[in-house]
Amino acid sequence: xxxxxxxxxxxxxxxxxxxxxxxxxxxxxxxxxxxxxxxxxxxxxxxxxxxxxxxxxxxxxxxxxxxxxxxxxxxxxxxxxxxxxxxxxxxxxxxxxxxxxxxxxxxxxxxxxxxxxxxxxxxxxxxxxxxxxxxxxxxxxxxxxxxxxxxxxxxxxxxxxxxxxxxxxxxxxxxxxxxxxxxxxxxxxxx
Length: 191
Description:
By secondary structure, this protein is mainly α. It folds into two domains: 3-56, Homeodomain-like (Arc Repressor Mutant, subunit A, Orthogonal Bundle), CATH 1.10.10; 59-181, Tetracycline Repressor, domain 2, CATH 1.10.357.10.
């Protein structure tokens, strides 16, 4: 048993039982080990959850970084969509990610920021837009995943349509992008 095996099994447990039901006792049972042996790899459950969050974000962390000459607007939207897709890959993915610190991703974040600034987005606005898009995405996925676990939306009044989570996400993302475009110095910022 190694650290990667523990994290992979913990993520499978997450998918099976949900975040609130993940326990080191259940994880040890699934791995066929005694609970204290998990502490060899993770000193606390918080450490385990941080490793799970990092591993769950691997698909987004492997997404292509922007290249000079890429359209920053397209990249910004694609980056947020990639983040959303990754959060949705795991049951309670947004809850697992919320509050985690992307320490393993700092170089990638710096490269993304450098790209936005080189594309004419002022540094402060680039930082705030990336933060806003990230938190917006996590919030959208939190709601979507909560709805997936909730009973059917039956009983809603006829004039209240069911929420299309993807359409709502895209609309909000367009608003964030539109606001960011108002602050850019790039000559092609206006459409």
